[in-house]
Amino acid sequence: MPDRVIIATAGNGQIRAVAAFTTDLVNEAARRHATSPTASAALGKALTGGLLLSAATMKGTGRLTIRIMGQGPLGLILVDAGANGTVRGYVSHPEVDLAPTPQGTIDVGGAVGQSGTMSITHDTGLGHPYTGTVALQSGQLGDDFTHYLATSMQVPSAVSLGIFVEPSGHIEVAGGLLVQLMPNAGDEIAWRLEQTLNRLPSFTQLARQYHTLEAILAAALEGFAVEILQVDGTVRFECPCSPERVLRAIASLGEAEIRDMIEVEGQAEVRCHFCNERYLVTREQLVELLVNP
Ligand code: ZN
Q: Could you tell me if 117 and 75 lie in one domain?
């Protein structure tokens, strides 16, 4: 099940659906940030939700920034996802690990927290970004994305996110499904869709049973004719940070700050929040910034 996003319509264009497998990119995020199984599940759901929402609402160079600030021990979860399929993100406390719920599932709701906020900044890349904020509903994130779409964007939707973490910490499967009613949808379609979605198994169950995104969508939207519009196989964890960007960021701090770095540390170490990449800037490079700012 390689990482992919597919976009489809159903019910003669009255329903839009996006489905994604994100197993490889969630494993990459978990490796980079050394997340506990609980943090892997929470960050993985946030990354997957970001990609689904981006595919459903953005085009071209458009990006979404998702800030999930719950009262739970994980702290802030920040995700940046683009319509081009690239996503990056981090969690403030990747080491936090909670005992499973009585149902045997990872306690994402407890780790994120049942109260707090989810804020999403929509940037089309053409100026005038806007931000919507809603209160967290359960901290399970699928419910919270659903609530965001329904209240902040006024789009009746269902978002199902699934991450299965093996005892070793490896993520066996990650992915999700977003189904939304288009503005032209009639009451009968809306009612039938609600009945269908109420019976929907979890995303991990769907993935185990149906294996492909096309089959998952067909099962999730049983009774509706599904038409696949777009398949994107280039989804990946990607961060645009680089040694050049780090040097430019240090240069922007100004001469006094750079002199201070040279005198106190003799070098500078910078870590990118988003991807946890570590950059070491040598004394020679710092001196060079003073000579050629
Ligand atoms: Zn980075």
A: yes
Q: Is 254 buried (19+), middle (13-18) or exposed (0-12) by CB count in 10 A?
A: exposed
Tally of structural domains, the chain: 2
Q: 273: domain CATH number? A: 3.90.1280.10
Q: Are residues 12 and 31 in the same domain?
A: yes
| C-alpha 204 to ligand 1 mean position (Å) | 29
**pLDDT average, residue stretch 22-45:** 98
**273 lies in which domain range?**
243-291
pTM surpassing 0.85?
yes
Distance, CA 214 to ligand 1 centroid (Å)? 33
**Three-class secondary structure of residue 72 per DSSP:** coil
pLDDT digits (tens, 9 = 90+) for 103-150: 999 999 999 999 999 999 999 989 899 999 999 999 999 999 999 999
- Cα(276) to centroid of ligand 1, in Å? 6
Q: Which two tokens stand for residue 248?
A: 């430019």
